[in-house]
Amino acid sequence: MDPEWLNHTETQTNITEVTNINKFIEVMEYHVPFALRINKCLTPIWYLVGGIGNIVSARIWLHPRMKACNISANYLAALAIADFIYLFLHVFYELENPWLVGTLDLPIWCEVWNMLYMSVQYLCVLLVLAFTTERFLSVCHPFKSERFSGKARSLKVIILLLLVAFVVGLPQTYFWEVSDDECFVRSSQLVPGEYTLYSIYTWTSEMVMFGVIPLVVLTLNTCVLKKIKSVGKLNINESRISYVRYNMVATTMTLMWVSFYLIVTTLPVTITFAIQNNMVLGPPMPISQMGDNPVWSSYFTYYTARVIIREICMSHHVCNIFIYCSTNRRFLKHTKDSILGPLLCYFKEDDSSTRQYPTPLLKNKNLLLNQSSRVQLRSQSRS
C-alpha cells in the first residue's frame, strides 16, 4: 500500500486534497480510469490462472517420478507454493486498493500482512537464485556440484531461504500500523525531505532483492549458455542423445526460461519503484482542474505506466506452468493426466456401464451364437 496520499488534507468543499486511499482512488478514477479498469479486470484473471496453475505445478513437481528425474523439483515445487501464497495475499491488497473494501485496516493483521507479503516475494526471488546457482554448478563445475546438489540438501536450502526471507521481511511489522482506521506507514517514518529508517531499509532491501539478485541470475545464466555453446550445445539435435543427457537438457532449459522470465518481469517493477520517490502529488485544487496542472499530469502518466507494468509483470507468479509444459515433456504428460485424467475416467466408466447391460436383441444374438457353437462341438466329438 503506497502512502503517497498522506501529506494532503481537504480544506474546502471545492478543493480536493488526498488524505486517504478513498480520495486517492477518487482522483484516479476521474483522470485515469483506464488504469483502474486494467487493474480490476486483469488481476482476477491472474488469480484464476495462477491459482490453478500453481496448485497443479506443485502437485506434479512433488510427484516421486518427477523428483527422481529432476534434481531441482523441490525448488520448483517450493516456487509454485510461494507463488500461490503470494496470489492469496494479493487478494487482500486488491480488495483494499482499488476496491476500497478495507481488508487490511485491522490491528495486528495490517502488520502481519505486510511482513508476509514482502517475505513471500523475497522467497520467490531467492528460490530462483538457488536453482540457478545449482544449475550453474552442474553445467560449469560438474565435479564441485556434487557437494551442493542433492534432494536432501535442496530441502535444507529451501528452509534456509525461507528463514532469510522471513527475517528480511520482519521489520515491516514495525513500519506499518493502523491509524485513523487505515493501514499505512507510521507517521514517524514519513518525514518529508528526510531519509527515515523505513525509506532506507525498504529501498535497500528491494534494490538488493529485485535489482541485484536478478542481475546475478542473469550473469549465471549467461555463463551457462556460454558453457553449453562451448561443449557443442549438449548435442541436443543428435539422434544418439542419452536418456540422462536429455533430462539434463530439459531441466536446464526449464530452469533457464523461468530465470529469464523472472528477470524480465522483475526489473521493470524495480525501476518504477526506484523513481517513485521522485513522483509527488500535485497541489490541492478542484479535481476537474488537476489534469491541467503539470505536477498532477506527470503523476497521472507515471501512475498509468506503473499499473500497466505491475499487472504485466505480476504474470511471473502465474505463468510458470506454461514454461514447464513447453520445455518439459514429462511435466506436460503429468499435466494432461491431472487435467484430462478425471474426464477420461468418467467417459470410460460411462462406456463400461453401458456395456454391462446389453439390449435384449444383443442377449438373443449371444444366446444363438452360444447354441450354434455347442452344436458344432458335439458334431465334431461324434465324428
Concise structural overview:
This protein has 383 residues and is mostly helical. The chain has 14 helices and two strands.
Account of the 3D structure:
It is a single chain. With 383 residues, the chain is mainly α. It has a single domain, classed as Rhopdopsin 7-helix transmembrane proteins. The chain has a two-stranded antiparallel ribbon. The N terminus is likely disordered.
Q: How many individual helices?
A: 14
Order of helices and strands: HHHHHHHHEEHHHHHH
Which strands sit side by side, in order, in the main sheet?
1-2
Spans where pLDDT lies below 50 across 5 or more residues: 3-12, 234-244
The name of the CATH superfamily reads Rhodopsin 7-helix transmembrane proteins
Class of secondary structure makeup = mainly alpha
Number of domains: 1
Arithmetic mean of pLDDT: 81
CATH class category label? Mainly Alpha
Q: Indicate the proportion of strand residues.
A: under 5%
CATH architecture field:
Up-down Bundle
Tell me how many strands there are: 2
Biggest β-sheet strands, sense, barrel: 2 strands, antiparallel
Q: What proportion of the residues is helical, as a percent range? A: over 70%
Q: Rg to the nearest angstrom? A: 29 Å
Q: What would you call the shape? A: elongated
CATH topology: Rhopdopsin 7-helix transmembrane proteins
State the end-to-end distance. 96 Å
Index terms:
elongated; 383 residues; 2% strand; Rhopdopsin 7-helix transmembrane proteins; disordered N terminus; transmembrane; mainly alpha; two-stranded antiparallel ribbon; G protein-coupled receptor activity; transmembrane helix
